Predict the structure.
Amino acid sequence: MGNVIAIITTSVDGYIAAPNDGPGRGLGDNGEPLHNWVFGGPWRYEDDSRGKPSDDDAAWFEDTANKLGAVVCGRNTYEASGHWGDRNPFGVPLFVVTHRPEEQPDSGGFTFINGTDEALGAAIDASAGKDVHVMGGADVIRQTLAAGLATHLTLIVSPLVLGGGKRLFDGFERRLELEQLGARQSRLATFLDYRVS
Amino acid sequence: MGNVIAIITTSVDGYIAAPNDGPGRGLGDNGEPLHNWVFGGPWRYEDDSRGKPSDDDAAWFEDTANKLGAVVCGRNTYEASGHWGDRNPFGVPLFVVTHRPEEQPDSGGFTFINGTDEALGAAIDASAGKDVHVMGGADVIRQTLAAGLATHLTLIVSPLVLGGGKRLFDGFERRLELEQLGARQSRLATFLDYRVS
């Protein structure tokens, strides 16, 4: 079995989205800089096209893709992304946690599942021994960590203090001892890898 | 003039102390692991003696001390430390922000000052062009950042999720763009250095 990696981008003050995020509002008010590392620099939702990740970040994506077997995300993340243009972009099975699995579209490569545990189980089954990424939202990551189902946590920290928004660890009350696996900085973000004991 | 560096240790979920910290209670309930990097490994307040920082951490302390001109802390930090055994341990002037400056002890090398701005001004004056460290508590760091008085922010992230306690950025509502200056990991903590724009 591969690793189950909770992985998400946060600000230095621990927010995964700026205020007023959500469906049609992406990362919230001026939240785009959180994901500058994904697009090689500043970008805006209203831009016609977006840049590509730059050297170190591109290498990270390639390395990650090679080890990836399945992805789990929450319904809000799916909606906030605009359904990734109605096509699963990950090249591996993607499981969307939702209370309304009957709303799964017939095409696009998305599997809707009720329950984080159930989605994780399905993702592990589908991952062929490769890694499973739990990519958010915050609630799905908190549930995965609280249930002891994540073997790893990767935080990608963007260099800004947002001063508000959706906090990754909001309401999370469990204590977890972590093992440091590395810290690395690209031009646009800092990657912190931990093993969850 | 040197840099004004807000510098503090946090957990991965952004707490600078575990629940129930304070005078006589140090870093709070089982909060000691936050500062494992300071003592070379696990330690407890009730221990008769404490360890020394290990290789990378010791080098960091030495490098930091060489550049240090003055230190600012809040009254709670001063009290929580047990007044550092009634003797300023930093080898440079130490300014304690407090509403009751008249309570300054006659000895020990502590200067009590009313107001974070005033303490920072005094520290800069006393620093002889070297760096000023603002070492906490959280409120003094937030005030320094909110007032635009910090030129740098260094977060020392200990590898644990506390699930509760005193949050560094609690109630902080300003947005700050940061510049990454480096990320480095010792055996016991991750050091993230930022310039505050």
